[in-house]
Amino acid sequence: MRPSPIALVTGANRGIGREVCRQLAENRLRVLIGARDPAKGEAAALEMARGGFDVEAVALDVTDAASIQALGDKLGAVDVLINNAGVDGPRALAWEADAAAWSRVLEINLMGAFHCARAALRRMVTQRSGVIINTSSVHEQIAWSGYSAYATSKAGLSMLSKTLAQEAGPFGGRVLCIAPGAIRTSINAGVW
């Protein structure tokens, strides 16, 4: 019997990431719930495992390239990577925004996805298969005053996805980018 495909989802202990994990597990994938906070990842995994799903929590901080590489070395190849981890960042006009907070948004939303994709693609091109899906936002194309860091990070993620798709395609890898509309999650609490 062929083993179940393995999917790793970053930022998976809540919101969109958690729902993605549930749906992947429903479709018989073995799902790795990537979470910066191991206790929250374990809680999400326990709840899904009670539903009969094949899930496991893995500690994953997308801002730590060394830990991403170590996790990749431990796991070996994954069939599907969902880069979902993200933050919305400073809610301020660009000239009033804290530069360190602005950089932190890029570090998580864009560089985190880059580091995870890079580790996964090294294995995917060797096995000549695999899928990476990056979670962007409609704000990659729609300006939203006070959210310049978030919009910039998501526009960058969209272009990164297109570039990686061109690079990985000849080796059998696929890279996609999705841009969900407004979804009621903790990242946009207070918007509604």
Describe this structure in words.
It is a single chain. The radius of gyration is 16 Å and the shape is globular. Helix 4 (99-127) packs parallel to helix 5. Strands 3-2-1-4-5-6 form a 6-stranded parallel β-sheet, with helices on both faces. The chain has helices at 15-26, 38-50, 65-75, 99-127, 148-168, and strands spanning 6-9, 30-35, 55-59, 80-83, 131-135, 174-178. The protein is α/β, with parallel strands linked by helices and 192 residues long. Helices cover 45% and strands 15% of the residues.
Largest sheet, if any? 6 strands, parallel
Subunit arrangement of the protein = single chain
Number of strands: 6
Sequence of strands across the biggest β-sheet: 3-2-1-4-5-6
**H/E order of the elements?**
EHEHEHEHEHE
Shape label: globular
Q: What value does the Rg take, in angstroms? A: 16 Å
Secondary structural class: alpha/beta
Instruction: Note poorly predicted spans.
Output: none
